[in-house]
Amino acid sequence: MSEISERPLAKRRKSWTITDFVLVWLGGFVGTGVFFAVALLLENDDWLIVLGLAGQYIGNLGVLWLLARLKDDADLGFKVEPRDVFYIGLGLLLQLMLALLLLPLAELLFPNGEPPQQVAEIIESAESSMILKLSLVLAAVVLAPVTEEIIFRGVLLKALRNRSTGFIMVVTAAVFSAVHVLGLDTERLWASAALVLPPIFLLGLLLAWVTLRSGRLGPAIFLHSGWNLLAALVLLIPSELLDQAG
Fold first, then answer.
1. What is the span of the domain harbouring residue 29?
2. 126 and 91 in one domain?
3. Which of 21, 45, 139, 156 has the least CB density, counted as fewest CB within 10 Å?
4. For residue range 200-214, what is the model confidence (pLDDT) as tens digits?
5. DSSP single-letter state for residue 216
């Protein structure tokens, strides 16, 4: 009897948990700190950002890999199919529609046109080198979608697998949007949050829904990539050209 009751407990300990989700994020912070410290030796502001960002993703994925080795069922649904590419278009369309919808609010909160997110401000800045801009665009369009979907729609979603679909969608979307507070303009935090977080929450709901519906991370990864792609491409356009177009 005791032997039978112990087996389910052992199984539960070897499945994905909220603790795993927290550990993966802590790994990202540690990785950022380590790579940032190394970058200080280079005395180059651009490399501080690039290596710090690289450290975050390496830390996230490194801890994830270590934890996966301890699991009975480490599968997070990381499967990609050719048809998933079409979700890039859905992400682009969703981003465009919400940007147009929130344009009056953006003009009210940021009348000078300054971006509410720090990464966007760096990409848009004329002082940033092209290497830095391209690195940030690569991170936004490739690294962030892959890593964040593995973490949020992978680890966190699996940790909540025994809950209802609605609960999973809302919680993962809420945590997903809350984490993005770290990337907002700290000088105008509340204005940035009011403009950025509601669309990210809606995106999080959709990402959770397509993952639950497909049973794979492929659709969410490409949808997420398409969402980031539009903003990244717009920010790469020189401001002089945008002024002429306006």
1. 1-74
2. yes
3. 45
4. 999 999 999 999 999
5. S
